[in-house]
Amino acid sequence: MSIVNIIQKNVTESLSDLFNQPFSEKDFQINQTKPEFEGDYTVVMFSLVKALKLSPDAIGNQLGEKLTSSYPDLFTKFNIIKGFLNLTISDVYWTTLLTKNYNNNCYGRKEMNGKKVMVEYSSPNTNKPLHLGHLRNIFLGWSVAEILKVNGYEVIKSCMVNDRGIHICKSMIAWRKFANGATPQSTGIKGDHLVGDYYVRFENELKAQSQILVNKIKMADLCDFSGAELEKLDKLLIALTKLDEIKDAEKITKLHDEIREVARNNTQIMAEAKQMLLDWEEGKPEVIELWKKMNSWVYDGFDTTYKRIGSDFDKIYYESDTYLLGKDIVQQGLDNKVFFQKEDGSIWIDLTAEGLDEKIVQRKDGTSVYITNDIGLAVQKYEQYKIDQSIYVIGNEQNYHMKVLQLICKKMGMPNADNIFHLSYGMVELTTGKMKSREGTVVDADELIDEMVATTQKLTEELGKVKDFSPAELKDLYDIIGLGAMKFYLLRVEPKKTMVFNPEDSIDIHGFSAPFVQYTYARIRSILRKEAANFEALLANTNETETTGNLLPLEKEMIVNLEQFPTALEQACAEFNPSVITNYVFDLSKTFNSFYDQHSIAKAESETKKQLRLQIVGMTANTIKSGMQLMGIMVPERM
Fold first, then answer.
1. How far apart are CA 75 and CA 118, in angstroms?
2. Is 62 exposed, middle or buried (CB count within 10 Å of its CB: 0-12, 13-18, 19+)?
3. CB-based burial of residue 411 (10 Å sphere; 0-12 exposed, 13-18 middle, 19+ buried)?
4. Which of 242, 274, 591, 616 has a Cα at 20 to 30 A from 334?
5. CA–CA gap between residue 187 and residue 297 (Å, rounded)
6. What's the pLDDT tens digit per position in 469-510?
7. Strand, helix or coil at 311?
8. What is this structure's pTM?
9. Which of 518, 458, 461, 462 is nearest to 486 (CA)?
10. Which residue ranges form the domains of the chain, and what is each CATH number?
């Protein structure tokens, strides 16, 4: 139980005794006392005034007297400042907590609670390699899963591989047209990179073909179009002529975009991709063979990247296995009149009553859309694992899609409907702007990792502190620091916020960064090596070491910070927010450096002080390591 929980319990009981009526934790607020006032924790009195019909100071005085007399081992004194009751916690409480936990590697971990959670993250497409945006997704999902584990949940880490669809067919068409049989082995190119190159090649060819059509449309040459699209283009050209007269730039741009979209959908290469998707769904052998071959290249590439960044999954789903499940559910929805069919054969759901709009769940040609696949997968997850919660780590551009998914599941009466939670996160941008995978301007994950490690090596060598390291040790050190810097930077921002990734800031050893925390840990390990004999004697002493006495301000601040680690774990879990942990370990590291700069261990004022400070050092090392592990970040023994 945290000190705040203890205070809440004691205050509740004391109020009930004093005023002979029931109270709860919701009746008052507890904060840490502001630095300018004496005390450790503050009870705010104002919310009690109406019920007790007393002034805040009068309530505070009675409560303070009651607490210090009833719990003298916990509260040593109190003071009242304008309706705020400031309580001073006994040094004995802090030293006892330290003595019990300074060598507890499981400090903050909770017992299993019997609840099961699935966290789905990564979910890449097999038409391109992982990029910077994927990395934020992966690090966020993996870290949330680990945070849930230490809070007592059974966690299944899952990944949904988007291995079918028009985007996959684009890479396949381009490879068949332009690759001349090239393979990862023949080119020396990592498999996911090779396939991604042909996705970009498709888009470049599509752009070239569509521009030819756009030029013809501008000349009113519409012989390549017929039916509804011809009619649409006629209307667009008429509207464009009228807008040219009034010089409405915004509307003109929108019309040009619509014309380009019609052109894109009517190019020869897009027609080939659409036909390939139909051939795939019909199971044509030559298409399936090509699909399997190119996907295998991508899987090998993904696995290499996952291994390097330390990501793992307990269960991998494939869209090619789940999309048919969704089709069965679409038929059920039709039978139950949850869905309706339009004249062209496409199937929809009407969500206008819920403030949304109509949403297609199956195309007129019978092919699935994303929502169809996701419905089937949601059902399969629940049936396989009977999970209490299903967390989807998906970017905020899919907020609408996830609302639709949950609404459909509810309307279908599915047992998994209420357990769906969308962990929405903001996009990652560069200092140069947004990334575009179609144009090949995304930041490739593998290249970024290499860059981070290379930058780490350069900066470390410039500091000149690597003479005692072997080449193998240096390689490991550069990987640990480079990867740690990237993970910490991508996790230090609250998930919902859009962020800008700056590699230089991420690796700044003096900033809000993993290298700063890692350096603090390495510094602590150096201290413990120097004091090895004393620390081992401390560990060997089975009796509780006497550490009572007055705590100096920074000694107390360190223990207070350490006491808050379990609370930080609870908050990070409740909010699905690893940035709570990044902030915690960073603040703990800052406080430790101030503490150690002022208080010697080797030259401590007494043996009792030395033992106390060694306990602080040991518990800080364990806590930093535990916190960083929850983000998949290693901490080096020396730097």
1. 43
2. middle
3. middle
4. 274
5. 12
6. 999 999 999 999 999 999 999 999 999 999 998 888 898 888
7. coil
8. 0.90
9. 518
10. 3-89 (3.30.1360.70), 445-629 (1.10.730.10)
